[in-house]
Amino acid sequence: MISRGRFAARMGLAAAVWGALMLISLAIGMAGYGFFESMRPIDGFVNTSMVLSGMGPVEDSRTFGGKIFSGAFAVFSGFVIIIGASVILVPIFHRVLHRFHMEESGS
To answer: Is the pLDDT of residue 71 over 80?
Structure first.
C-alpha cells in the first residue's frame, strides 16, 4: 500500500480535478445563461451554482432557448455531481480495498 504522503498527494490531485470540473461547469452555465437569457454574469453565476448544487435555478427562464439550455444544463449538472463525487471517492475506496486485500493475504 502506498504511504500516507502519496495518498494525500492523490487526494490533492483528485480535489484539483474536482475543482477544475466545477470551474469549467460554472463557466459553461454562466455563458449559457448570459447568451440565452441575457443575464448579467453575477446572475448567471447564482443560477449556475444553484443548479450545480442541486437546488434548482433562482430565476425562471423566459426564452425558448433559455428553457432548452436550462433543461440540458440540469441534466449535465446531474452527471457533473456524480462524476465529481466519483473523482473524490475512488482514491478512498481504492485504498480501503487494498487494506482489505492486505489483511486477507496476511501481508
So the answer is: yes
What is the rounded CA–CA span in Å between residue 35 and residue 5? Answer: 45
Q: Which residues contact 31 (CB under 8 A, 6 or more apart)?
A: 44
Domains by residue range for the chain, with CATH? 21-101 (1.10.287.70)
Nearest to 10 by CA among 101, 107, 104, 98: 98
CB 45 within 8 A of CB 27: no
Query: What mean pLDDT is predicted for residues 40-58?
Result: 95
Three-state SS at 93: helix
Q: Indicate left, alpha or beta for 61 from its phi (over 0: left) and psi (-120 to 50: alpha).
A: beta
91 φ, ψ to 5°?
Answer: -60, -35
- Residue reference for cell 496476511: 106
